[in-house]
Amino acid sequence: MPGELMVRAGGKEYPILVGSGSYKEALPEILRRLGPDKVAVVSHPPLREMHGKDLEEALRDELPRHGRVIWFTFPEGEENKTLGTVTEGYRFLLRESLTREDMILAFGGGVVGDLAGFLAATYMRGVRYLQLPTTLMSMVDSSIGGKTGVDLPEGKNIVGCFYHPEAVIADVSVLRTLPEREVLSGLAEVAKYGFLYDTEILRGMEGWPEGRPPEGYDFAPLVRRCAAHKARVVGEDEMDLKGIRAFLNYGHTFGHALEAAAGYRMLRHGEAVALGMIMASRMAEWSGRARVPLVERHLRVLLPLLRDIPRPLEVSARDILGFMEADKKRGRSLRFVLLREWQSPELVESPPPDLVWETVERTLKDLHAAR
Ligand code: GLY
Questions:
Q1: Top mutation candidate among 137, 139, 249 for ligand 1, by most atoms within 8 Å of CB
Q2: Exposed, middle or buried, 1 (CB in 10 Å: 0-12/13-18/19+)?
Q3: How far is the CA of 240 from the centre of ligand 1 (A)?
Q4: pLDDT digits (tens, 9 = 90+) for 226-269
Q5: Beta strand pairing status for 38-43 and 68-73?
């Protein structure tokens, strides 16, 4: 289609279809092209309950008469993104006689997308799959670019591979049923693109009353804009080896440690990343690396997104630093994305430990004081 957003990476090319109601429009055509007998939807039980009927309707018409839509659902939560769940998935697909001519459809947020992608990459040496993200975070980031995988007790995304979908279908009408806290959390990843690449995104967010999207807001243009940044970055550095895709981890070094220290349940991923970006802006300023003031604007854009986090936030600087240290022991250097100026990121390896400690401790203290 002309003007369509495309990902070009790893010798593959696939569209990102953004719109309201886009899955009902896009799925029949994709199914006609790929011609599966069965579609295995990987999802969570509440999503199946909420959207299952509509999704099956969009799929069934294009399947042959003997074709079927089958569902592999597992409980929500990062703690279920494991090899155990993947093994259950393999056995389910075998029982249902899914073949390499068939297809998997990832229908959910980041956890579903990562796990379903890995299942698709490894079942029978690889079956084709589609990403149909249902959260704002997964629409603008995790569903695009072929990162798949699961966690081990030792850490997140330890097992996985790059395996691209046939298409990403971001249907923003699905966001209407998403809890507001989840939308706010996804907006942290949107703001990330603003800080890294796109001042228009920041201006738009700053223009919202109370820093949040107004009632009835149409997310499609914003999702399209972010997805275009993601597609470009993936095209330039598919395997995350050139230090370009790594910028997408802005706020994530602090954020992952915060999530882990908070036990994953207390903070949404985007909330942890929002706090992580605030910390990164402070570290850039305090270390003298930033050539412009960064912190105030980070607070203006990000604090409204943290409206629903538990207060006081029961995490300690010691725990957060402990998780970072554990990562270091596994041979990963402590690497931060910092801004020199707006839309001018750089990678900083192993900054002075005192600076990291002070950044975490003072930010947590300010957060407690602001409750
Ligand atoms: N979510 C970061 C990446 O895809 O590289």
A1: 249
A2: exposed
A3: 8
A4: 999 999 999 999 999 999 999 999 999 999 999 989 877 889 99
A5: parallel
The DSSP call for residue 144 is S
Q: Against a cut of 0.90, is the pTM above it?
A: yes
For each of the domains in the chain, give its residue range(s) and CATH number, in order of start: 4-176 (3.40.50.1970), 179-369 (1.20.1090.10)
147 lines ligand 1 (CB under 6 A): yes
Q: In what helix (H) or strand (E) does residue 9 lie, and over which residues does it extend?
A: strand 5-9
pLDDT band, very low/low/confident/very high, at 138 (cuts 50, 70, 90): very high
> What is the distance in A from the centroid of ligand 1 to the CA of 353?
26
From CA 369, how far away is CA 109, in angstroms rounded?
A: 33
CA of 63 to the centre of ligand 1 (A): 33
Q: Determine the Cα–Cα distance for residues 99 and 96; give it in Å rounded to an integer.
A: 9
Burial class (CB in 10 A: 0-12, 13-18, 19+), 256: buried
Q: How many residues does the chain have?
A: 371
CB 260 within 8 A of CB 251: no
Torsion, CA 160, CA 165, CA 171, CA 174, rounded to 10: -40
CA–CA separation, 283 vs 277, rounded Å? 10
Over residues 54-80, the pLDDT tens digits come to 999 999 989 999 999 999 999 999 999
For the stretch 8-64, pLDDT in tens is: 998 999 999 999 988 888 999 999 999 999 999 999 999 999 999 999 999 998 999
Mean per-residue pLDDT, 130-136: 98
Q: Where are the alpha helices (DSSP H) in the chain?
A: 22-34, 45-60, 83-95, 110-122, 136-137, 180-197, 199-206, 220-236, 252-261, 269-286, 295-302, 317-329, 353-369
User: Which atom of ligand 1 approaches the CA of 246 most closely?
Assistant: 5
In this prediction, residue 2 carries a pLDDT of 42
